[in-house]
Design brief:
By secondary structure, the protein is of the alpha/beta class. It folds into two domains: 205 residues, 3-Layer(aba) Sandwich (Rossmann fold); 180 residues, Rossmann fold (3-Layer(aba) Sandwich). The chain is built from 18 helices and 14 strands.
Length: 406
């Protein structure tokens, strides 16, 4: 008689605000693969106090009192999973008060879990409290950024100090830390992590590969940037380089897909060169589902990061998405992204200067041999970095922890 395998246990995933955001975030892929690997999940997300969110009819739950835009806690059945959404009190209450309220609301609704996985140091205190209460028997910190020095999210010195404290708590309390890069993993080891694994970001090759089938030969030579418009991402470098490229390639075009605090300055920079005309097209923020359509209109993906500390520790989603769309990458020599491009041969790397960027762009546009070689390597690199492959260390780790605590 064949013995049936025991069902896999239910896991706890604390995704915070990232879990409920639209778009392409690492937590979304992690959740999807944990489901694919057979786990049932209790998912914890957060919304802001005044953020309107439709209350599910499946199982409405109220905390001590309703928030400004809905209940303080709602629970929604999603097949075998549950989504628990906590409405955080106003920011003026402080992060610790938000943590304590989240714990108080959730404690009675949660059971006991062999493994809890969470990301972002903003969720560290909640994870610590649940671990101390034996709600979570093993805790895994999904470590996707070096947050205290992240110039696009940190709001001043006090915020950086608090994030540093929370990050240290995350690293030291966790039974394992899963870092997105080897550089970040070494930092966590030096900070006292019990165990560190590397699981880099991946890419959905099937989704971004749609750009290949939608691409036509009729569009002009086109560079593209997709992402938020912050100074750290160096979009200004490509714009400053365009007049130099334009001299040899008058039809060149640059698509900017995204929005952010630097958008007005970048638009002003583009207007300073009247000869460019409409060469720079600002598309604004676009739905994630439409990104392959925009990538199909381009030939080269731009990843011109400035040499900021947090970038040296990061693992770029953007570069892999360009590669999966069949685009060579034109980037700067900064961090893990530069290593990935150099080792794979999926593009060209330059110093942060308009002259260097322009020369490299012209090489890609005018030398078919170089372009086709980079494009072939880009496709291959993307295939080797599917989420299924990059998250394999997480699958093995969670399975081992679940077996130890069952």
């Amino acid at each position: 008689m064949t013995r049936q395998a025991s069902p896999k246990p239910r896991l706890l995933i604390i995704g915070g605000t990232n879990l409920l955001q639209r778009g392409n975030h690492r937590i979304h892929h992690l959740v999807a693969h944990l489901r694919r690997w057979g786990y049932a999940l209790d998912l914890v997300g957060h919304v802001n106090y005044r953020e309107v969110r439709t209350q599910p009819a499946s199982e409405p739950v109220r905390g001590p009192r309703a928030g400004a835009a809905g209940p303080m806690l709602s629970v929604e059945a999603q097949g075998d999973d549950r989504l628990l959404v906590v409405r955080k009190p106003p920011a003026v209450a402080g992060r610790l008060a938000q943590d304590l309220l989240s714990y108080a609301l959730l404690r009675r609704r949660l059971s006991r879990y062999p493994v809890c996985v969470y990301g972002h140091p903003g969720n560290s205190v909640l994870a610590y409290l649940l671990q101390r209460a034996a709600v979570a028997l093993r805790v895994v910190y999904d470590d996707w950024d070096y947050f205290p020095v992240h110039s696009t999210t940190v709001r001043g010195r006090m915020d950086a100090r608090e994030l540093a404290w929370r990050e240290r708590l995350s690293v030291r309390q966790a039974d394992a830390v899963v870092s997105v890069s080897s550089v970040l993993a070494r930092l966590r080891e030096s900070q006292g992590a019990k165990r560190v694994l590397v699981a880099a970001n991946g890419v959905d090759g099937e989704f971004f590969g749609r750009a290949e089938s939608g691409r036509t030969a009729s569009h002009p030579p086109t560079l593209i940037f997709v992402g938020s418009l912050f100074r750290a991402w160096g979009v200004d470098l490509a714009i400053e380089s365009l007049p130099l490229i334009h001299r040899s390639l008058p039809t060149v075009r640059f698509l900017v897909v995204g929005s952010g605090p630097e958008e007005a300055a970048l638009r002003a920079l583009a207007r300073r060169s009247p000869s460019l005309g409409e060469a720079v097209e600002f598309q604004g923020r676009q739905d994630y589902i439409r990104l392959p359509d925009h990538l199909a209109r381009a030939d080269v993906g731009v990843v011109t990061y400035r040499d900021e500390e947090f970038v040296r520790y990061s693992s770029s989603l953007k570069a892999l998405e360009y590669m999966a769309a069949g685009l060579p990458v034109l980037g700067t020599r900064v961090g893990e992204t530069a290593r990935l491009v150099e080792e794979s041969g999926a593009g060209l790397l330059v110093d942060f200067s308009p002259e260097a960027f322009a020369a490299a762009a012209l090489r890609l546009f005018q030398d078919r041999r170089i372009y086709d070689g980079c494009r072939k390597s880009a496709r291959q690199c993307a295939a080797e970095h599917s989420w299924e492959r990059t998250l394999e260390p997480v699958r093995e780790l969670v399975g081992r922890f679940a077996a130890e605590t069952s």
